[in-house]
Design goal:
Elements lengths: L18 H31 L3 H40 L6 E7 L4 E4 L1 H7 L10 H7 L2 H17 L3 E8 L5 E13 L2 E11 L1 H23 L4 E5 L4 E4 L1 H7 L3 H4 L10 H17 L2 E9 L5 E12 L5 E10 L1 H23 L3 E5 L5 E4 L2 H6 L3 H4 L4 H4 L2 H6 L1 H12 L4 E8 L7 E11 L5 E10 L1 H41 L4 H10 L1
Antiparallel strand pairs: 1-2, 1-5, 3-4, 4-5, 6-7, 6-10, 8-9, 9-10, 11-12, 11-15, 13-14, 14-15
Length: about 500
């Protein structure tokens, strides 16, 4: 770029032999002559009218101000001319590729473009004569009024402007041009504008692609049902998703630019801030549970998952995190523990025990009551099927019963009152009655059986004792009847030999 020398009094770059230097010496000589003449006139007036020095001083100062004020003004105008000269030279010698300069003479409505501007607008230098109206013809029809309004405002208010607008080249290509311009005034009227033009098509396309990708990413983040947010290294929120807005009870505009101290009391925000700082120091990821207080005053149990964001040099740039509200899960865990405890209490106090089998009908759970009832630890039975713990003799003694039971299992049907004998050591036998129902998951897939078992050994012993007692009573009654019937039969025979008297007939009836 052409260097511009300074213009003015005592300019270190001024050439003493230049025209400007000659003009400067002429002006100073002229001012000196006039000053001497002024002094002579003052002496004459003093001799005739007896003006004192102090009476003449204001006129002298006024004279000096006029002389040197005019001198300074002329030097300023010369400096402006020099600046314009070098600005025009700099305009013509613009070396930067892709960036062009332009100058518009408003009075003559002529445009002067650098070679880069011709390339940007897709026109051939020499064939295209630039003017403001010709320039407007190249502006995209949808942007033309906007460009005119911007230029008119700049001319009216004497303000620079910077805009992006589309153009249509003679070949039909649509490009995006970034323009900057400033206006020059003379005597209160705009006389010219100067500026630069840049082909911003690729930059705008890149910005559009990035904006579209960001919009897609933001849409994906908003679709995530759990709160997502990211902060800078100072803990200031830079972005979040819709779920985080709902969780914070605030809009995105109210969140961005704030810290957690704006939403949480210090006793809750302080520990969180310390965790963030620890993540910045250590890097990596961070996962932990915490009880927080939301803006509406409710306490929530949440699970934090955070990851540090790093700059290219490895220093912390911020963090991204998610918040999983596990309050409902915590309540369910408490309810489940209470339910399990109730189940254990019932199982311990009940006379029955509970059992479960998997999809292969192998025992997967037995309540502790089974040990008290049968005297066998649960692990002895776990992993086995009922077919494996029932002796073959039992299965062969009543094959129809066991075939029905195994058919029920294979077809996943409930069953009741299945009775069999269980013996863990082959000596002590327990009579067991079991009931079971099939279990299916939410997809209808078979998962196994659940049921209860009852030790009916005592009941079986009572039934056996009753049966034996009944048989003994039945045998005794038969024996007594037999013993009674024998003498009565002899007596009847003798009576048949007697005369058939009324007394005998009466006795016969009594015997019968």
């Amino acid at each position: 770029m052409t260097e511009m020398p300074e213009a003015g009094i005592n300019s270190p770059n001024a050439d003493t032999g230049s025209p400007q230097a000659g003009k400067s010496r002429t002006d100073l000589t002229f001012i000196a002559v006039l000053t001497v003449l002024m002094a002579v006139l003052a002496a004459v007036y003093h001799s005739q009218y007896r003006f004192s020095f102090f009476e003449f001083l204001p006129y002298g100062l006024f004279w000096v101000a006029v002389c040197f004020g005019g001198y300074v003004y002329r030097r300023w105008r010369e400096a402006q001319a020099i600046f314009k000269q070098y600005a025009d030279a700099d305009f013509r010698e613009q070396p930067q590729s892709g960036i062009g300069t332009w100058k518009w003479d408003i009075v003559t409505d002529t445009l002067e473009w650098s070679d880069e501007v011709y390339q940007i607008f897709g026109v051939v230098k020499g064939r295209f004569l630039p003017s403001y109206q010709e320039f407007l013809k190249l502006v995209h029809p949808e942007d033309r009024f906007y460009v005119q309004e911007i230029v008119a405002t700049s001319l009216r208010e004497n303000t620079p402007y910077a805009i992006d607008h589309r153009i249509v080249t003679p070949a039909g290509d649509v490009r995006i041009v970034s323009e900057q311009g400033s206006v020059s005034f003379q005597d209160g009227r705009p006389v010219s504008m100067m500026g630069v033009a840049t082909d911003a098509t690729e930059r705008k396309q890149t910005e559009t692609e990035l904006r579209d990708r960001f919009s897609l990413l933001q849409s994906l983040i908003d679709a995530i049902p759990i709160p997502v947010y990211h902060k800078d290294q100072n803990g200031i929120y830079e972005g979040c998703n819709k779920a985080f807005e709902d969780f914070a009870r605030a809009s995105k505009e109210e969140i961005i630019g704030k810290t957690m101290y704006d939403f949480l009391p210090p006793e809750f925000a302080g520990p969180q801030d310390n965790m963030d700082k620890a993540l910045f120091r250590q890097g990596g990821v961070q996962t932990y549970e915490k009880t927080i207080l939301t803006s509406d005053g409710e306490k929530h149990n949440v699970m934090y998952h955070k990851a540090a964001l790093l700059k290219p040099d490895g220093s912390p740039a911020g963090l991204i995190g998610t918040i999983l509200d596990i309050s409902e899960r915590k309540r369910m865990e408490v309810a489940l523990k209470e339910s399990e405890q109730r189940f254990r209490n019932i199982a311990q106090s009940a006379s029955d025990w509970f059992w479960e089998t998997d999809r292969d009908h192998r025992f997967s759970f037995l309540s502790d009551r089974v040990k008290d009832m049968l005297g066998v630890p649960a692990h002895i039975v776990l992993g086995k099927t009922r077919k494996e713990i029932v002796s073959e003799e039992q299965q062969e003694s009543d094959p129809e019963k066991w075939q029905r039971h195994f058919d029920d299992l294979e077809n996943h049907r409930p069953f009741r009152d299945l009775v069999y004998v269980f013996s863990s050591d082959g000596k002590e036998e327990h009579h067991i009655r079991i009931n079971g129902v099939p279990v299916f998951n939410e997809n209808g897939e078979f998962r196994g059986y659940q049921g209860t078992g009852t030790d009916i050994t005592g009941q079986k012993r009572v039934e056996e004792a009753l049966r034996e007692s009944e048989e003994r009573h039945r045998d005794f009654a038969a024996d007594v009847a037999h013993e009674l019937r024998t003498p009565l039969a002899v007596l009847r025979t003798h009576l048949d030999n007697l005369n058939d008297t009324k007394e005998v007939q009466s006795l016969r009836q009594d015997v019968d």
